[in-house]
Write a structure and sequence with these properties.
heterodimer, A: 267 residues, mainly alpha, 8 helices, B: 6-stranded antiparallel β-sheet, 37% helix, elongated
Chain lengths: 267, 348
């Protein structure tokens, strides 16, 4: 395993970052934020090094297997968490994003890391674009999910303070913006996938389980974007939709791959 | 702008949400429940009652069922009406703020989706698709694609990665011959379909065709076998005598004594023949090209030749272009809808 030298090191830092950011929800100590930030930075740098080394070793973008995809997905979540902490001073939502990244990274341990040659069907100019859009879309939905969970938890102990309302509006807006970016990339994912499928299989849509679940995810986020315009669906109700949407993302990514098979089964 | 009656219903978000919910449920059912199985298979899996429900609601073929098509059609009408309504709203809003193009994003996005649906209908009505497995050197007619042409496979190549025997690409060389004597040479490979006069030729599969002869002192009969095949040598189907033939392009016996093909290359081509009597192997042997064996009294087998066959999908579909235009319009709509907002927010 290429990542072997780094694996436990990275995992340790990710767990440290996750634990410190979760503890920080109760104890608002500055040193916990510093630990979270430093641990996240170290783990993201090490993950990036691993991804680059893997890319150099394989001579292509590291998107060829579930292992590589999960590794890049996990890295993206840490990177976005760093941006949220550094740029927006948002540590609360990160408490629910970093653990997702940690779980994803830990899950790579059980995945095949074998470097295999690309089969003919995967050698397409659309491959890079298609999988990149998937990583960006899924990362955005993961961030909106983490922020949504944080919103749901904090809104339960809602006070009448005006500052809390402002914070909720800010979080709601953040969730919406990440869903918008995710939705744009998910649309591109479906479009590029359709064009590629037409070239490779002669059918732009086959109701393959992966396609079908990507469509389900797309429809759920489309409903969210439509309903979110209404006051009734802002805040808590919208967050429930975002949570459902991300559960569909996870099922599309892992559930379909390991339980259903189909044309997209590249384990 | 007041909306009344049916138009109000058809442009309502509530109807759209209900339809989307039905589509989502249908998609979940269609992906979770195995499709296109027999009633008995569903009964074995889920029990009689569930099998009855699956059969009654066409859940065994959700995506090709009439009710799913009906839901999609109502959704399209809803989408079209919403789009018309949004265009009116966008035109009204644009009057007050001519510089802001964000109003057009949503209508353009929905127009794109409507175009996709029209493309799907066009595909369903006029699209044609056939799959052929043709041996190298053979020719077939493809007149069903309005081309009055025949397709010949001139050659088939497999490219391999430098460091292994893993296939890198499958390539078929095709020549299309017209009634007027014209010949068009095409090359198709995986992910790079050949196109001619609106007809696409896609590389889908490949395999080997083996020629063997069974002979006695009196007669000889030729067989062309693709993959593995059993040839009955007696009339008795139950427990009779049959000859099985399998082709190994790169024949090798592994450490367990099992016969395998080391690669897809024809480096060491051999056939394995197995004589079966009463469902039990009675005799077996391997043959290189040109060799022959006596498989039973007065009956011999000879491995005459082998060649590749290629699986080509031939497709003619005017709807595809429309669908892709719909995709493009939808993407433009999304960018119009959301990018200006982000830019505006940034300025703030």
């Amino acid at each position: 395993m290429l990542l072997g030298n780094f694996y436990y090191f990275v995992l340790t830092f990710l767990v440290l970052a996750s634990v410190s950011t979760i503890v920080q929800l109760w104890f608002k100590a500055k040193w916990l934020k510093i630990i979270t930030f430093i641990a996240s930075t170290v783990s993201s740098v090490l993950m990036l090094v691993s991804i680059v080394l893997r890319a150099i070793q394989t001579g292509r973008l590291p998107y060829n297997s579930v292992y590589e995809f999960t590794l890049v997905f996990s890295f993206m979540l840490v990177a976005v968490s760093l941006v949220l902490m550094a740029r927006f001073k948002l540590f609360g939502p990160v408490a629910f994003i970093l653990p997702i990244s940690t779980i994803l990274f830990a899950a790579t341990f059980g995945m095949s890391t074998e470097i295999t040659n690309l089969m003919p069907a995967l050698q397409s100019k659309w491959r890079g674009v298609h999988i990149t859009t998937a990583i960006v879309a899924y990362s955005c939905f993961a961030v909106s999910f983490g922020t949504g969970i944080y919103f749901l938890i904090t809104s339960r102990k809602k006070s009448t303070k005006k500052t809390d309302d402002n914070q909720e509006m800010r979080l709601d807006s953040l969730i919406q913006n990440f869903v918008i970016v995710g939705f744009i990339f998910l649309t591109l994912l479906l479009v590029t996938g359709a064009i590629w499928a037409e070239e490779a299989w002669g059918s732009w849509w086959t109701w393959d389980p992966k396609e079908t679940w990507a469509l389900i995810t797309w429809l759920i986020y489309a409903v969210y974007l439509h309903l979110h315009k209404r006051q009734f669906w802002k805040g808590t109700r919208g967050c429930y939709l975002v949570v459902i949407g991300f559960l569909c993302v996870i099922f599309t990514l892992f559930g379909v791959t390991f339980l259903m098979g189909g044309l997209h089964s590249y384990k | 702008m007041k909306k009344h009656g049916l138009f109000k219903l058809l442009t309502s978000m509530r109807l759209a949400t209900i339809l989307i919910a039905i589509i989502v449920v249908a998609c979940v059912l269609g992906s979770v429940i195995p499709q296109n199985l027999t009633y008995n298979a569903y009964r074995e899996m889920f029990g009689s009652f569930s099998a009855d429900v699956i059969s009654a609601f066409a859940i065994d073929h959700v995506f090709t069922s009439a009710w799913f098509f009906a839901v999609l059609s109502i959704f399209f009408i809803n989408l079209a009406c919403c789009t018309a309504s949004r265009f009116l709203w966008a035109a009204h809003s644009a009057k007050n703020n001519k510089k802001n193009i964000v109003f057009w994003g949503s209508p353009v996005f929905h127009v794109g989706l409507c175009i996709v649906y029209i493309g799907v209908l066009l595909s369903a009505i006029s699209g044609k698709k056939s799959y052929y497995e043709i041996s190298v050197g053979d020719e077939i007619s493809i007149s069903e694609f309005n081309t009055s042409m025949s397709m010949r496979i001139d050659g088939f190549d497999m490219e391999y990665y430098d460091d292994s025997s893993t296939p890198k690409q499958y390539i078929s060389h095709i020549s299309l011959s017209g009634d007027d004597g014209s010949i068009k040479n095409l090359t198709t490979s995986v992910n790079s379909p050949a196109r001619y006069k609106g007809v696409s030729f896609l590389q889908q599969s490949y395999g080997w065709e083996v020629s063997v002869s069974l002979f006695t002192n009196m007669a000889q009969r030729e067989y062309k076998i693709r993959e593995e095949q059993w040839i009955p040598l007696s009339d008795d189907d139950e427990g009779g005598i049959a000859l099985g033939v399998a082709f190994y392009p790169d024949y090798k016996q592994n450490e367990n004594g099992e016969i395998i093909s080391s690669s897809g290359k024809d480096s060491n081509p051999r056939i394995l023949w197995v004589l079966q009597a009463n469902n039990e192997p009675a005799a077996m042997g391997t043959l290189s090209k040109g060799e022959s064996n006596l498989i039973m009294e007065q009956l011999g087998i000879r491995f005459d030749d082998y060649r590749n066959y290629t699986g080509i999908q031939v497709k003619y579909d005017r709807g595809i272009g429309v669908i892709f235009i719909g995709f493009l319009v939808s993407c433009i709509g999304l960018l119009l809808r959301y990018l200006p907002i982000n830019a505006k927010d940034k300025k703030k």
